[in-house]
Amino acid sequence: MSLRIGTPNTPNAHRVLLLGGGELGREVAIALMRLGVEVHVADRYAGAPAMQVAHHAHVLKMTDAQALTDLINEVKPYRVVPEVEALNIETLVALEAAGTTKVTPTAYAVQCTMDRQAIRHLAAEELQLPTSPYAFASTFEELAAGAEKVSYPCFVKPTMSSSGHGQSYVKTPEELKAAWDYAHEDARAETGRVIVEGKVDFDFEITLLTVRYRDAHTGKDETRFCEPIGHRQDGGDYVESWQPQPLSARALERAQEIAKTVTSALGGHGIFGVELFIKGDEVIFSELSPRPHDTGMVTMASQRYSQFDLHARALMGLHLEEITQERPAATAVIKAAAEYSDPAYLGLEAAMAVPGTDLRIFAKPEAHPGRRMGVALASGPDVATARERAQTAANLIQLENN
Ligand SMILES: Nc1ncnc2c1ncn2[C@@H]1O[C@H](COP(=O)(O)OP(=O)(O)OP(=O)(O)O)[C@@H](O)[C@H]1O
Ligand SMILES: NCC(=O)N[C@@H]1O[C@H](COP(=O)([O-])[O-])[C@@H](O)[C@H]1O
Ligand SMILES: [Mg+2]
């Protein structure tokens, strides 16, 4: 059936419901609205970044099955687009199976990638992709045994988490108890389980943005890749990213092969952020997002179609002729250093005076130490210049209580 885009806010509107309304959802909302879609955004708090630009906002506990079902029945979206991990995935799986709701990319892909145990099972065991050594634990004793198995140093993470929430780098057995407690305190969603992973000794890490879309000429599902994105993480959360990250021909081929294998197994249409560790020509799978990736915000400065445009197009079943990177670019994250309520941002004049820069101010109504509140984007003649410009611009932005 061909796509029919009705007028927003009328009965014939083409509605999409985003579950999660952070900085990534905000850009997806804008990309969808440019294509005439009526956008609904749900999240756990009012005034979330995407709510500030969408047609309709819904505040609810998305982990509550009844509340989520009621919302979907009320909005009757053409597609439900999960943007965070903290949601009741069983509800989405059931609604998709009943044929009443389409989930982007698929309910299975969302379920599998939000749970480190499920994605390891798929990637390492079924698909036989190389990963770090790992073990799962539901008790502290199991964690201690798992850490011995993967050996120190290791990473301990909640099985449902993102942006480094609840993640610890553990160098000795003495540090393990604190890591166990922290994983339970700071998980995005508490499952009672943690993963312990042996440390991968890598040269650098990348995100390979991978798009699955319906080809208008053949009617078949096809896969395309963006140029690799390099990034630097601190405490499990990204602080800086750039594109392109050069790779050897062999490593690039292997990275694309791994990304295609895992995204094809997950299915559906949309963009995926495939996280990979690179050591020489060797490529090790880490994890992936079934949606735009935080490090992929760089594509707003580097590509003809950003990862958000690509996601919007693909999820609507539209064609992608090509993905072109137009210039080297970088991002640097702006994080809060303290608690703020309704914060104000200062320093925009100086930041924008740095050549090639742009800003995304997320305008979250509350800040706490370490919360991502904005990002500086920069392009330049080469990646090194773009990185320096983005860093300089980000450092010039300050937050202040109103
Ligand atoms: N086994 C490992 N070996 C080496 N480094 C690791 C390992 N696991 C995690 N890291 C480091 O920590 C970062 C964050 O880990 P991971 O992606 O699993 O966390 P996350 O909470 O899902 O973060 P995000 O949502 O940003 O992807 C990685 O990008 C990497 O820099
Ligand atoms: N790595 C995943 C990621 O970057 N997700 C992005 O962060 C938001 C949550 O931010 P918050 O914790 O500040 O509310 C999410 O809504 C999403 O946009
Ligand atoms: Mg990650």
From TrEMBL:
- Domain named ATP-grasp is located at 121-316
Q: Which reaction is this enzyme known to catalyze? A: N(1)-(5-phospho-beta-D-ribosyl)glycinamide + formate + ATP = N(2)-formyl-N(1)-(5-phospho-beta-D-ribosyl)glycinamide + ADP + phosphate + H(+)
Q: Where does ATP bind?
A: R116, K157, S162, S163, G164, H165, G166, Q167, E197, G198, K199, V200, E205
Question: Pathway it acts in?
Answer: Purine metabolism; IMP biosynthesis via de novo pathway; N(2)-formyl-N(1)-(5-phospho-D-ribosyl)glycinamide from N(1)-(5-phospho-D-ribosyl)glycinamide (formate route): step 1/1
Gene3D superfamilies xref list: 3.40.50.20, ATP-grasp fold, A domain, ATP-grasp fold, B domain
**GO biological process annotation, one example:** 'de novo' IMP biosynthetic process
What's its EC?
6.3.1.21
Respond yes or no to whether keyword ATP-binding is given for this record.
Answer: yes
Binding positions for Mg(2+)? E275, E287
Q: What terms describe the molecular function in GO for this protein? A: ATP binding; magnesium ion binding; phosphoribosylglycinamide formyltransferase 2 activity; phosphoribosylglycinamide formyltransferase activity
One GO CC annotation = cytosol
Which SUPFAM superfamilies does this UniProt record tie to the protein? Glutathione synthetase ATP-binding domain-like, PreATP-grasp domain, Rudiment single hybrid motif
Subunit composition? Homodimer.
Q: What does this protein do?
A: Involved in the de novo purine biosynthesis. Catalyzes the transfer of formate to 5-phospho-ribosyl-glycinamide (GAR), producing 5-phospho-ribosyl-N-formylglycinamide (FGAR). Formate is provided by PurU via hydrolysis of 10-formyl-tetrahydrofolate.
Q: What is the official name of this protein in its record?
A: Formate-dependent phosphoribosylglycinamide formyltransferase
- Look up and give the organism this protein is from: Boudabousia liubingyangii
